[in-house]
Design a protein that fits this description.
0% strand
């Protein structure tokens, strides 16, 4: 019997997950942009959680993560959702269950801003900051799941591909030049 290699299995599962995400959203270009940004945000969440759990005492690390969550996850990513996607869905007069998801996501955005501010305020002491960081990570993971498996599936019947293509153009217009720098920050931290 061959030896079982956990690493190979993990790589196979990750490959299937990526393939499944692309198949589920491949017709929807705006959705693909948001899902790709989720991947970067999830890397930052993992860095935050691992640092807190390992009691890493590094104020600059937590301040950089707070900056990333404020500027990338909130201003860039949530900005696209709130100012472009959610507004479009509200004007489109989608069914109430879709609007319920939107309202829940908007509430998450507000709560996330509050928690990121607590992370920033307590960045010098991992003990003081830890509960806020873990609460934020948990909320944000749930939030991403609500979008990937809830909102996106619920909105697609009401959002023609052509309109998603127009949204991508709007997304590009609002992306600041700092987006790539923030993505590179997380890539470097995750090495």
């Amino acid at each position: 019997m061959d030896e079982f290699d956990d690493l190979d299995l993990l790589e196979d599962v990750e490959s299937l997950e990526v393939q499944g995400e692309k198949e589920a959203h491949e017709e929807y270009p705006a959705t693909i942009v948001l899902v790709e940004e989720h991947k970067t945000i999830k890397k930052a969440i993992d860095i935050l959680v691992n640092s807190v759990k390992n009691k890493v005492q590094d104020e600059s690390l937590y301040l950089n993560l707070a900056r990333f969550f404020s500027e990338y996850a909130d201003a860039i990513h949530h900005g696209k959702e709130e100012k472009i996607l959610f507004e479009y869905l509200k004007k489109k007069k989608v069914p109430e269950h879709v609007l319920e998801i939107v309202r829940e996501l908007e509430n998450d955005h507000v709560r996330g801003r509050e928690l990121v501010e607590k992370i920033r305020e307590n960045a010098s002491d991992v003990e003081s900051m830890g509960d806020y960081a873990l609460a934020y990570a948990s909320m944000l993971r749930d939030h991403i799941l609500k979008e990937d498996e809830g909102l996106f599936e619920a909105m697609h019947p009401y959002l023609p591909v052509e309109e998603e293509e127009e949204m991508v153009k709007e997304f590009r217009k609002v992306d600041p030049s700092s987006k790539k720098e923030l993505e590179m920050l997380i890539e470097k931290m995750s090495l």
